[in-house]
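Ops channel
N.P.: pipeline sanity check, posting one input/output pair.
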């Protein structure tokens, strides 16, 4: 199972739903831009959050345009388009953790009791590489 961390913007306001088994969930698209400014292109991920994770992200007022990071299990899913004939693939992330990305002095997400803070830590910092590397085995 592949684990990933993605930073992007939510493409539409979130709507809490309930599964046939009575479990709350939220599903939304996250878009990131890949490449340099002139050659950038969007890449979309479908994010699925269940139970407490779904409740927490909705309660925190994440909405369309919010810049967030998500971590979770990455899946390549095949689906049938609305025409009922054509199939396509999409990248899907089963949410494990998430958090807001601060954007300067953001008015959108002021610090408050509803803002996730201690329970949604930022991803761990990667260790520094000193530049001395050993050759790869042939």
């Amino acid at each position: 199972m592949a684990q990933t961390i993605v930073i992007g913007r939510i493409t539409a306001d979130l709507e809490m739903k309930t599964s046939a088994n009575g479990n709350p969930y939220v599903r939304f698209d996250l878009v990131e831009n890949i490449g340099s400014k002139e050659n950038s292109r969007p890449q979309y991920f479908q994010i699925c959050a269940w139970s407490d994770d779904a409740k927490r992200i909705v309660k925190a007022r994440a909405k369309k345009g919010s810049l967030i990071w998500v971590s979770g299990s990455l899946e390549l899913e095949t689906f049938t388009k609305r025409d009922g004939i054509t199939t396509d693939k999409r990248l899907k992330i089963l949410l494990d953790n998430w958090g807001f990305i601060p954007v300067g002095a953001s008015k959108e997400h002021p610090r408050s009791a509803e803002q996730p803070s201690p329970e949604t830590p930022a991803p761990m910092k990667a260790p520094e590489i000193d530049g001395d590397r050993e050759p790869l085995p042939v």
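N.P.: looks fine end to end. The chain has one domain: 2-100.
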